[in-house]
Structure formats: structure tokens, C-alpha cells
Amino acid sequence: MIVWDLAVVGAGPAGLSAASVAARAGLRTLVVERAEHPRYKTCGGGLIGTSLAAVRERIEVPAHDRVDTVTFTRDGRRGFTRRHADAPLVTMVRRDEFDDRLRAAAVAAGAEVRQRVAVRAVDQNPDAVRLRLADGETVHARAVVGADGSSGVTARHVGVRHRQVDLGLELELPVPPREQSRWRGRLLLDWGPLPGSYAWVFPKGDLLTVGVIAARGEGERTREYLRAFVDRLGLAGVEPTHDSGHLTRCREDDSPLRRGRVLVAGDAAGLLEPWSREGISYALRSGELAGAAVAAGDLAGYERAVRRDLVPSMRAGHRLLDVFCRRPDVFHALLATPPGWRMFARFCQGRASFDETLTRAPVRAALALLDRLPASRRPLSRLPS
Asked: What's the angle, vertex CA 276, arms to CA 181 and CA 201, rounded to 5?
């Protein structure tokens, strides 16, 4: 019987990061993935500087655009545009290509990747973990990193709990050269009509990724927001190559990250930035932390590392989301100011996390002022055309 040093469930950014770190450390590492690369993944595909830094030594990023210009609107109105001339803010990738590069890097590091393999159950004893596969095979490992998504089997096994669940809807729209030129190097963010909602346009060469996100439970309003947004863009007649939706789940602050020999990372752990719902950087970093903990033989060290490196920014993100939900108009206006734009640019480039930003005196003063203002009373029942 083969006993792997590490078995990873899920071949996305979190799982493949864990596998690369562990395999480079000499661990016998297996990755099992229910799909087959390259596979489509619902995702905006914008890599911020933190994500680029995490993969710099592993892959050449398959960029389809590099964004230095951002247009902000408030429900289709009050638009303004800012440009960061020094360096790109966001690098746009298509997740099928990006994840496949990460898979190849994990294999090159020494990991074995088995695709089209679904895990049905997880159980463990003090010495090992058993993964029961859909074909009846059992995988034995000394440790497991679960990276199979927020509704996957490993998150259920560990008992991950969530404080925030959002519905994201996304279209991949093929556009002609004129439309490609219009959007090249530029993205659009629209703060929406539902509390905490926003929409985006991300350029990816001959495709535009257009989507919206809002709290779960507002499904029809979220779909209406997407329809109105696409119509405003003049893209209502474009047939999408992909039309998909997904739930993003953000963990409770005290939600477990480990149960015995099973660690969860990325979406499986509910690790993402609560305000923007950016998850790729959290997946890459938590995967690396998990792989390093397994390689060091210190599984509890993973929990300490996540709480040290990732949780503070998540707490700050919840603070920003609270302000954004209560005062979206003021939030929009603040982004138009030089300090607001610098905060946004530093976040995109990975030069400052939100928790670091919120310690700055001007930001603390602005948030304190917003706390004293009443919440917006704007009616939400009707979307503008």
C-alpha cells in the first residue's frame, strides 16, 4: 500500500501551490482533481500584485491584458477615471490557462497529478488520512490539504463555517476589434444598487469578462442588475461563450482551518478578501502556507501562519465592506480623492494590505466620520436603465 506524504484535493491555485511547496521539499505528493485541465473556471481573472509575487518563481503568467486605468461608476452614473502611469494595477488571465500553468509547475516540482478523479469521503485516524475516491480506490496519506472549494468534501470534514455568502454572476463575451481596443488596458467597476454589490468589466484580449456580485438571497435582483449593466454597456446582443454563477463564502473569524491531519486552504477554508471578494491571492498564499506546514511536520503551524498573514487583512476587509454597504455614495466619492485612489492602487499592486491601510491616520479619521453618518436610505426596488 502506498502512503503519500501529502495528498491534495483540488487542482486550483490553492491546491497546486501546496503541492509545489511540498514536492520541492521532497515530500511524496499527490494531487487529485475531479475535472481535467485546462478547464473553465468562473472567475474575473484579475491578478493583483500579491498574486503575481506568489507565482513569480513558478510560472510565466499567461497575461491577456495589463490594466493601468480604472473607471468607477455609481450605479451607472457619476463616473470618473483614474490612471496609474508607473506600472499596471491588475494583470488579466483566463483561469483555464493560469491554472494549467500552475499544474505543470507542480508536476515539474515532483508532484503527481491525477485528473478526472473525484473524492467522495474523508476519514482519518491519528496516523493517516484516507480519501475514498468515486471509482472505489482509497488514497492513504500522512496529511491532506483540502482545496476543493467552499462546498467540497474537505470543508465539510473540517467543519468550516461562513459569515458571508455572496452570489457572483459572470459572462464571457467575445467582442470585435473595435470593442477590444476600447477596453484594452482599462477596467470598469460599478458600485451597484444592492448593499455591498458591484459589477465589473475585465478585458482579456478578444473577450470581456462582465459580472456582478451581491449577497446571497437577492438572486433575482442580482440577475436584474447584471442585465441592466450589460445593457448600459451596449453589449446586450452579444452571445456569451460562458454564462455562469457561483457562490463565494467567507469564513467566520473562529472557523477551523484544520481537523487533525486535514488542512483546508483557499475557498475550501473560506479565505478571501470580504469587500472585493478577491480570492486568488488568498488561495495562492494559503496553499503555500499549508504545503510549508506539512513539509515542516508542523500542521498546527498552518493555523498560526494564516492568522498571522491573512486574517488581519480579512478583518480590515469586513470593516471596508461595512462602510461600503452603509455609505456607498460616500465610499465612491472617497475613491475619487487622491488618498482614496492611492489606497486602491496600493492594494492592487500588493504594496499595502487593507489592514496596513486602515492604520493610517487619514483613513482612520475618514472611517470614524462615516461611522457617525446615518446609513443611506436610497430605495433599492428599481434599477435604472
From this structure: 20
Helix (H) or strand (E) segment spanning residue 321: helix 311-326
Based on its alpha-carbon atoms, the radius of gyration of the chain, rounded to whole angstroms, reads 21
pLDDT in tens, 17-38: 999 999 999 999 999 999 999 9
Same domain, 33 and 115: yes
Task: Report the domain count for the chain.
Answer: 3
The DSSP secondary structure of 274-318, one letter per residue, reads: TTT---HHHHHHHHHHHHHHHHHT-HHHHHHHHHHHTHHHHHHHH
Question: Can you tell me which residue has the cell 469521503?
Answer: 121
273-314 pLDDT, tens digit each? 999 999 999 999 999 999 999 999 999 999 999 999 999 999
> Is 74 part of any domain?
yes
Query: How many CA atoms are closer than 13 Å to the CA of 128, on its beta-carbon side?
Result: 11
Q: Is the pTM of this model over 0.85?
A: yes
As separate numbers, helices (DSSP H) first and strands (DSSP E) second, the chain gives 13, 20
- Looking at the fold, whether 187 and 287 belong to one and the same domain comes out as no
Of the candidates 115, 66, 124, the one whose C-alpha atom is nearest the C-alpha of residue 90 is: 66
- Least-confidence region, from 23-37, 67-81, 152-166, 356-370: 356-370
> Do 121 and 237 reside in the same domain of the chain?
no
d(CA 214, CA 227): 14
Cell for 82?
483614474
Q: Is the dihedral of CA 376, 380, 382, 385 positive or negative?
A: positive
169 vs 223: CA distance, rounded Å = 7
Read off the amino acid at residue 383.
Answer: L
Chain-centre distance for alpha carbon 1? 37
Q: Residue 371 above 80 pLDDT?
A: no
Phi, psi dihedrals of residue 279, rounded to the nearest 5°: -125, -15
Q: From CA 296, how far away is CA 27, in angstroms rounded?
A: 10
Contact at 8 Å (CB) between 145 and 288?
no
* 124 contacts 135 by C-beta, under 8 angstroms: no
